Amino acid sequence: MGNPEAQGPPEEQRLGPVVRRRDQITPGTTDQRLLDTEGDAEWVHTDPWRVMRIQSEFVEGFGALAELPSAISVFGSARTLPGSAEYEAGVRLGKALVDAGFAVITGGGPGAMEAANRGAREAKGISVGLGIELPFEQGLNPHVDIGVNFRYFFVRKTMFVKYAQGFVVLPGGLGTLDELFEALTLVQTRKVTRFPIVLFGTAYWGGLVDWLRDTVVAQGKASQKDLMLFHVTDEVEEAVALVTKEVGR
């Protein structure tokens, strides 16, 4: 048998922190590919390039919201109709949060989000909208004073949590449920310092609360104390009092 050491090291290419060997070696250098003006533009759709886009979204979000005062994130359906009882409750909630000294953060869309932003603006407070790129483009509602549009849901969710001292959740659909359970999970697992989560509308949220208690907790998939991670109310004043109390205001 031959001596393996006599065969020399494997053919190797170092590209920054990446090592490529044998048939995984790519032609040329990183600088050469960067400065080459020829070729297709498929590289802008690669995962490494997406990382740069994701990073830029974090930078833009942090930069826009870094000086935001104490704020509450308000979630709710984009399908809530103007003039409905739910919409008017959202307007009152936005105003009451501003009166309590909070900025109001929403997803920036229509419906319940627009209602909370409208209430905040009419109360002369800070009205923030964190939009998301969707196939059915909605755009930021006209009551947003500081708006940031995101490509990626997970970046947007980080902004909701990082710059809010609590959540108030109006009746909503799958997106609202996603945001609600994201918040509950972060608090339950202590990934964030505990902050208040208030569900607004006992008739709407009652079935979900019953299912959590009678099925999820009853079958041991969650503990009884997890039901204490949130409050349910029908009163704007109580919702604001709950978030104010828990954040020590």
From TrEMBL:
Ranges where the record places region Disordered: 1-31
UniProt-listed Enzyme Commission number(s): 3.2.2.n1
Source species, domain of life: Bacteria
GO BP: any one term: cytokinin biosynthetic process
Gene Ontology molecular function: cytokinin riboside 5'-monophosphate phosphoribohydrolase activity
Gene Ontology cellular component terms for the protein in this record: cytosol
Keywords: Cytokinin biosynthesis, Hydrolase
Lineage: Bacteria, Bacillati, Actinomycetota, Actinomycetes, Kitasatosporales
Family: Belongs to the LOG family.
Top class in the EC scheme: hydrolase
Name of this protein: Cytokinin riboside 5'-monophosphate phosphoribohydrolase
Keyword Transmembrane in annotation: no
Organism: Streptomyces aurantiacus JA 4570
UniProt cross-references to Pfam families, sorted A to Z: Lysine_decarbox (PF03641)
Signal peptide per UniProt: none
Reactions the enzyme catalyzes: 9-ribosyl-trans-zeatin 5'-phosphate + H2O = trans-zeatin + D-ribose 5-phosphate; N(6)-(dimethylallyl)adenosine 5'-phosphate + H2O = N(6)-dimethylallyladenine + D-ribose 5-phosphate
